[in-house]
Design goal:
Two copies of one chain form a homodimer. Chain A is of the alpha/beta class and about 550 residues long. The first copy, chain A, is built from 15 helices and 27 strands. In chain A, strand 1 and strand 2 form a beta hairpin. The first copy, chain A, is globular and about 85 Å long.
Chain lengths: ~550, ~550
């Protein structure tokens, strides 16, 4: 093949020829006269992400992202682990994928504790050791509980890091390190957690990278300040990589995957040559995958042919020397996926009734507290107001009903709470894709619609159901209640409709789908809901919404 | 500690403070007013070298190089492996050292074959597997036999690489890749051998680095062309490192170790900041040692305090937070080393007689071929001349006697050969430090002196003995016949005298000591000597020096 070949050693394109089998066998850079019409770059490597964020399992995710040039991923499968434990994750690992899928063992299952929420699994040191010898493991998934690292006492996070170090001495520990700084940050890093993929300021970027952290920059991480910091100093190359973290199915379909992150970086002023380095060789080294990320002899023949390097226009994508995507040929997203035993009927819950969603309160004035959904953040704020109660029920006015219904076979009592700034009009939405425990999260303006939405999700064994006066949308997620087994394009179409539904009913957010799903994630501020009721995440306690 | 701290992420010095235990616990970069008087950089990491080249074992070598800031090495202990096999190398590994000593398992023991030379060990796949689980192994030692890699047939080199890959999947394979280019080079690299530490031209540097090779540059590698290539393009940083390969004891004493390589690079125009990167973080990544090479939390507190960054003036050297060298305090090179059983009496040879060195030939004209020692290369050329023979012996005139006397207990017959351009005057030198089989190499202008030198080395159980009419020098190397157990400064003094002796007797070379020792290494052109006789290294055969 004759092309401008990406030369990793000097981060530049050079005219060259190469031939390949499963690995590259021969590469030469030459000064022949003809101007090549194509550019060849290594396949993209996504150093930090979660396949279930796209409502896909590894094989479906691979199919969905090959056209975008993603040939290697490290996925922290936090969601399937909450739903189905060690076995669930091992079932994912056993899936055949067209890309190279490596795994980070999730470190926070459940995200909080079994006192605050019902997940279907709990990981401690033994669960980490259960993956010993698993060749696809390449990292410990993001450590989120910084306080555990600062504590002098024995705790789950410390036990898990220690067990991982013993079981996989060569692999990195991923971090989630928002807002840590100074001596606290030093302690965080010294615990062995040396990456961060959260949003950065210029100050946090400089502090973390100079302290040896490997920084993972995602789409939302790029502002002019961060881009300028990188652009101004190529010395940082190799110490950061691009990643996707969470990409919802419809966004993936319309805008792309890791290629979308690169395009944004390039559009904001980073050279394509340096952007490519941050999505190929830099993440390869981070993942200790020295067999890829470079167009060179002995490396895997994973590469992308571009017709335009500035817009990253992808013509074809090759894995181990085999062309898996060609822009000019039809492409099928279908995968041959059989849902493993036990994960096809995972919504173990009897049908619910409208009465289950009554917000009960003594008649008269009631002072309440409840989550206030914010449009620019997935954190909620505390909302307080005084309401009336009549017939033993709260008069809700514009307040929504918010509940998470336990679905792992305990038929636990339902504990609905109010939600401020939720849906408008007559509407309900229920999703079994509800981070991180994936119980049945419901937001509704009406008890009858709430029950209807929940019962649909129970009956269909997982998915998202949105109902209003004019339509009913259903996106099936029948694999563990969180993953679609439909072809990706159909899934993306369904998610697009759900997003439109949320917007139509006044639910504003940076990402409506993700915002909804994390109303039940009790680790970010301030008030969240779980199957146990309302959680004050700062106190780490279940609290009543009726405060007077 | 307050200093200009080396910030690896941006390859620059910044004012800062840090505190440390065994690992760094806290680092901050600050804009305080005071100008620090010192610079702090990570301990130097030597990515490719051989401790026995300095006639030292790991503990003695560590003592000798700590004052030069070398805190981590990867040593390919090719010599002790030839002398004492797997057990010998494991004995090295068991030595306590003050630095971090990691090991590359040598891949070419013996250098040629047991048909051409008698070594005391032979490594194949089983010997590689014998190191399974050995935590100090970090690489397979340099693959020298490129032809084995190009061959379609099964051979020792291929078996060894495969066994290493299976036993140590995470670690690199070191290469010795002089003069390979084009498709041959591609095949060399595709075999899994992805580094090179031989001398480079600008062309070879660019070709190898762009093909994904990690380049290891040593003192003799730097010419203006190579330095300019690096200086002009900082993108290469991270894809090459500095190394020492072989440093003879007296040079180490007088000029330094890896610090000497850095000083040369800096003097030739590379910035200190980039030179430091190439001896700290770049080799750390190459060796998959992500716990060092950076002044940062969680990394080992291995660091050097400099008073001057441009001359790398070393004030103190710290390992795991402990000060091991202080320029202003006395320093002792002594190590507490007990020679392991079997390696203290390793010269198993009966005394020799002057007659053993007679160059026997039929009376009259004799046409001969013999090695011609070259002054600018360790390769020899073929020398042919016609001599007289009298009383059944060659009339040597200015020809020396060259022989290697087998010393592993076989008492094999001695096969002396002539040498052109050897010593002048009445002199003999015998060394049991004679690469790579370490039999007793002798160069002499006189048979009586030859026997005397050899018998001294036998009697003292290893070392270098140089004799002329006025003096007798002896450097004891009683550990396996190749390593000194004396304090390093005494050893260096002895080697200095041997070097002076060689010079005085007209033995010219870039490095007189190394040049002498490789007269018996039958893998580089053109005629060499082994205990079996004269080897034509191109033919790979024993040949007679009498050709007519």
């Amino acid at each position: 093949m004759q092309a401008y070949i990406y030369d990793t050693s000097c981060k530049s394109f050079r005219k060259g020829r190469f031939s390949f089998g499963k690995t590259f066998l021969s590469v030469s850079f030459e000064n022949y006269d003809e101007e090549p019409k194509q550019y060849v770059i290594p396949g993209l490597i996504d150093v930090h992400m979660h396949v279930e964020s796209s409502m896909l399992s590894p094989s479906g995710f691979s199919k969905a992202t090959i056209p975008h040039g993603t040939t290697t991923i490290l996925t922290d499968c936090h969601e399937i682990s909450n739903v189905a434990g060690v076995d669930g994750l091992k079932t994912f690992m056993a899936e055949k994928t067209e890309n190279s899928t490596f795994y980070a063992i999730p470190s926070s299952v459940p995200a909080s504790s079994l006192e605050l929420e019902t997940s279907n699994a709990s990981f401690d040191a033994d669960e980490i050791r259960a993956f010993k010898g698993e060749p696809l493991v390449r990292a410990l998934g993001e450590i989120m509980n910084a306080n555990d690292l600062y504590s002098e006492k024995d705790n789950r996070t410390k036990r898990i890091i220690q067990a991982f170090r013993q079981t996989f001495p060569h692999y990195p520990v991923e971090g989630h390190c928002a807002r840590q700084t100074g001596a606290k940050l030093d302690q965080f890093i010294a615990s062995g957690v040396d990456s961060d993929h959260t949003e950065q300021t210029r100050e946090s970027f400089l502090e973390k990278i100079s302290k040896g952290m490997f920084l993972e920059l995602q789409y939302k991480s790029f502002d002019q300040e961060i881009i300028k910091t990188i652009v101004d100093n190529p010395a940082y190359d190799g110490h950061y990589a691009f990643c996707t973290d969470d990409v919802i199915a419809d966004v993936l379909m319309k805008e792309g995957h890791l290629d979308r992150v690169l395009r944004k970086a390039i559009a904001m002023g980073l050279s394509p040559e340096r952007a490519i380095y941050a999505a190929t060789w830099a993440p390869a080294v981070r993942l200790r995958l020295f067999d890829r990320g470079w167009i060179a002899p002995g490396k895997r023949a994973d590469f992308i042919v571009l017709s335009d390097k500035d817009n990253l226009t992808i013509e074809s994508v090759w894995v181990e020397g085999k062309k898996l995507y060609d822009r000019n040929l039809p492409y099928s997203y279908a995968v041959n996926l059989t849902i493993p035993m036990g994960l096809g009927h995972s919504i173990k819950r009897s049908p619910v009734k409208p009465e289950d969603f009554y917000l009960l309160a003594p008649n008269g004035d009631v002072k309440i507290q409840c989550p206030l959904h914010q449009t620019n953040s997935t954190m909620t704020k505390r909302h307080e107001q005084t309401c009336k109660a009549k017939d033993g029920r709260l008069v809700r006015d514009d307040l929504n009903i918010l509940a998470e219904i336990e679905r792992y076979g305990h038929n636990s009592p339902i504990v609905p709470i109010p939600l401020k700034n939720g849906l408008q009009g007559n509407a309900a939405i229920c999703t079994s894709w509800a981070h991180d425990s994936h119980n049945l999260l419901v937001v509704a303006t009406d008890e009858i619609l709430a029950a209807k939405a929940v019962n649909t999700v129970i009956e269909k064994q997982g998915g998202i159901c949105a109902i209003d006066d004019t339509e009913q949308i259903f996106v099936p997620l029948t694999y563990g209640g969180i993953v679609s087994v439909e072809p990706f394009d159909r899934l993306a179409e369904g998610v697009t409709k759900v997003r439109a539904f949320l917007k139509r009913h006044g639910y504003e957010a940076t990402d409506e789908i993700m915002s909804l799903a994390v109303l039940g994630l009790p680790v970010s501020p301030e008030l969240k809901v779980t199957d146990k009721g309302m959680v004050d995440t700062k106190l780490g306690e279940i609290v009543d919404w009726r405060i007077g």
